[in-house]
Amino acid sequence: MRGGYYFRILCTIVGDIVHQISAVNVDRQRVDLGGTLMSKKSTRVDLACQALRQAIIEQALPPGTKLPEDELGIRFGMSRTLVREVLAQMQSEGLVDAPPRRTATTAKPTLDQAREIFEIRKMLEREVVRLVIGRWRSQFGADLEGHVRAEEAARQAGDARVSIRLAGEFHTKLGEMAGNTLLRRYLGEVVSRCSLILALYGRPHSADCAVNEHREIVGALRAGDADAAIKIMDHHLGSVEQRALLDQGRGAGFDLGAVLSRYAGGLDGAGSTKVAKLPRPKAKKKG
Asked: In this structure, are residues 206 and 109 in contact, taking their beta carbons and an 8 Å threshold?
């Protein structure tokens, strides 16, 4: 049964490669025919996806939260058609459940699904470590150490929301350094899903552990010691998984409109916090 799950993952990856290749001509036609209008529409959908993704990653929207199209449209200033595009993208990343003719909700994975997600994440992160060491340059070390300093500053400030985001971005930054676009994309999606799982089942984020272990990972990468880096990464992710899978769901009350308004602030160029961006899958060519 577990083998079938991994096979489906492999099929998805291969399918995405094929779709991305076959969609090149479609994209060129859209650029030629769609012009500025297509660009503006895509940008607004992308920004709304980024804002919603960040709200979920930072655990501002608990798992199972209803996401009415009208409410999203008001907060993000877009039509229901565009809202549905946003929800479809979030569903493809595993962050939203959007069944037909029912109100979408933030995803609420089962414990079995959560365990499978962590298994996949460990596999991906080990490969990322190997690739990063193979491509290592001094700038990587400077960038990662700067990121860890930002994590430390958030920890000292007691800003749990920023700490959660930065902890995940450390891993997606490593994915970017690996030099493989598909690996970066899948790692980004899995890291986001793990944040959702932590919000659903886990204990509060441990900024102390994250900062210390990330610093150790950077040291092993800088030394070019793949075995040590993988060992530290496995221990780090094992700690995150243990904290995540406690089966003690949380359901504190909150104001959906207020949360959406805070994260939608950047859609029209207003100042907003940085959002984690993942590459959007290319559209399938319609035949």
From this structure: no
pLDDT tens per residue, range 226-266: 999 999 999 999 988 887 776 554 444 556 666 667 667 65
Distance between CA atoms of 186 and 222, rounded to whole angstroms?
Answer: 24
By the 10 Å C-beta count (0-12 exposed, 13-18 middle, 19+ buried), 134 is classed as exposed
Q: What is the pLDDT of residues 48-107, one digit of tens each?
A: 999 999 888 888 888 899 999 999 999 899 999 999 999 999 999 999 999 988 999 999
Are 175 and 187 in contact by the 8 Å Cβ rule? The answer is yes
Q: How many CB atoms lie within 10 A of CB 106?
A: 21
pLDDT over threshold 60, residue 183: yes
